[in-house]
Amino acid sequence: MNNTRLLLPALMVTMLCNMAIAQKKQFTMTEATNGLSTTLASKSIKGAAWQPGTHKMWEIIKADGKEEWKVTEFSSKNTVAATEVPQGAYPPGETVNNIPSLKWLDKNTAWFMNGKNIIMGSLDGSNWTWTKWVSLPDNAENVFVDKNKSIAYTVDNNLYLLDKDKRNIKVTNETDKNIVCGTSVHRDEFGIDHGIFFSP
């Protein structure tokens, strides 16, 4: 019993000392109440995407006041190498205001939306070559691109397909506005955030 009486105060003193050491930073009232959305917020990763068939993660960073792509390669030896990749020249007549988030089709091919234009990029080493792939209708939504370069999208409540030969096919013909096709109508669950799925 005497050992317990001595051990308990010693344990409490140790815990208080550790808490005092851990609490060196003084927070302002604003940080204490809104910190998780301001100064104490964790760093976000913008436009992150894995390059297929590699151990490379692409993201958009801001450096010297401008945005650029940063590529981080994670090797099997747990070493990390980061490089910046220039965006290359966009197709003539295409004004791209911000570095786009890439959507990858394969190891060396990616695309992004610029307004209603789909821009296709081919990567050779660290050099991009960009071409204007196709223009979609102004009211196109829910754009989904398959690895075989077919494009599905919706206009109003109907589904359309632009195949790899750029033939436009109207897949559905619903006149009742209460019936929607190709649109996610439920909460985004289980990683499902769209309503278009290509058959293999």
Short structural description:
Helices cover 14% and strands 37% of the residues. With 200 residues, the protein is mainly beta.
How large a portion of the residues is in β-strands, by DSSP E? 35-45%
Coarse shape: globular
N to C succession of SSEs: HHEEEEEEEEEEEE
In whole angstroms, the N-to-C terminal distance is: 72 Å
What is the average of the pLDDT values? Answer: 80
Number of helices: 2
Uncertain spans, ≥5 residues at pLDDT below 50?
A: none
Find the count of extended strands (DSSP E, 2+ residues).
12
| Largest sheet, spatial ordering of strands | 1-2-3-4
* Helix vs. strand class: mainly beta
Instruction: Note the main sheet.
Output: 4 strands, antiparallel
Percent of residues in helical segments?
A: 10-25%
